[in-house]
Amino acid sequence: MTVIESPRTPARRAPRRGVNLEKWGWIWMRASGVLLVVLIFGHLYVNLVDGEGVKAIDFGFVAGKWASPFWQVWDLLILWLALIHGANGMRTIINDYTSPGAVQKVLKGALLLATVVLLVLGTLVIFTFDPCPAGSPAELLPSFCTA
Q: What cofactors are annotated for this protein (predicted)?
């Protein structure tokens, strides 16, 4: 006589050792998603509602905002959370639609490279942004810069 186990019976597997990266990726997506909602709505409120709307957003607006370390960190958090959140989502899509092997490794490598490059460049832009660089011709500087 053949016995069929109940569908709710947990599968018998060998105990796993080490860190469960898929579980932590799942947790990351939920936590970063909640933080991103708060950060992005704060960003939109300050940039669009609290001020004069879209017409006020220009080079000078960004320069004034990034003069404050608070807004630099705020925008840095949005950049890092959004890029890593998106990269983790793309990693999941790559896992779902490709078979383990060379193609999957190349796609994940390209994704990792693109993510790291964008994080480094974005971070450099936020922290090295200088609207009034020394030695620039006065006619090329914004009106709020003293030549």
A: heme
